[in-house]
Here is the input.
Amino acid sequence: MTSLPEAYDTPGAGPPADFWRRELAALGGRARILDLGCGNGAVALLAAETAAARGARWEIHGVDRASIDPLRSLPARYRDAAAAVTFHPGTSMARTPFDAGYFCLVTGQFAFEYGDPSLIAAEVRRVLRPGGRAAFVIHLQESAVVSGAAVELAHLRETRELFDAARTVAAVSGGAASLPARLAAWNRFGREFLRLERLADAQPERRPVATLREVPAALRDALTGAIPEPGDPLGPAGARDCGRALADLDGALRAREGRLAELLAAAPDRAGLQRLLGETASRGLEVLARADLHDPGGPLLAHAVTVRRPRHPE
Ligand SMILES: C[S@@+](CC[C@H](N)C(=O)[O-])C[C@H]1O[C@@H](n2cnc3c(N)ncnc32)[C@H](O)[C@@H]1O
Here is the structure.
């Protein structure tokens, strides 16, 4: 659920979901659907909700190479839909466990461009029944999603120094350091906090600043929750808890940094997009339709492509 701007970060919201609804509308009452690189199942869940609303009997599978567990990680309101999908963690899009010709629809939202396009195209053709379709929503370097990811990544990297200062505060407050040493650590934290506040204030209008505001606030809360007054000492248990809270936050944000860096590396430019589509063509999949997806406000979000395995081999 981390691949789109926040407004579309739920199954069923925004132009990509409208694209998926159109693809799903073409299916009959019985269908088998495979979602590649499904993550927490943004597309698979939409398919499950659509099937439930239509009373259709769709068998839905999602594969991802990561150790996904959407039933546990999603909020309760998605549990019914998630329970209707069979998720396959630790499974490559290039080598899925399904029989040839098993699916009538293969989907991939911000997935195809993450793997080896030649191997994925071959696998898609293998698992599609003749006449079956595959649809992909693909990042583009020039999209608002990618430029937003670049800004967020830069802002996350800006918070590293503050993390370091926070860790120092926790360490010196819990150790045998003198009061001046503890206060010096707090001063460094305060200076860095203010620097990030000024950086957030200086961002051009419309550029997201949530990271620059929320990460410092979370760090401040983690410290002040354990240390009421700057300079106060921390007992060993308090120092351990505070250190753990900082480490957890750090781990979550560095994982987010990793995902954003991966997104920036995966997103093709227009020439790269042509090469991806060339791989589908060379694997015998014909392009039925393709279009840029725009936010209603104008910005480009992604490119959508629908391909088909021909009913009869040439
Ligand atoms: C940007 S996320 C998209 C997730 C989901 N489709 C969505 O729209 O929210 C890309 C996903 O592709 C998965 N992925 C990347 N390379 C893969 C591969 N070779 N095989 C299977 N999954 C892969 C990642 O683990 C990640 O969950």
Summary: Residues 6-143+267-308 form a domain with the Rossmann fold fold (CATH 3.40.50.150). Residues 1-8 have pLDDT under 50 and may be disordered. The chain has two domains: 6-143+267-308, 147-264. The CA atoms of residues 35 and 62 lie 5 Å apart.
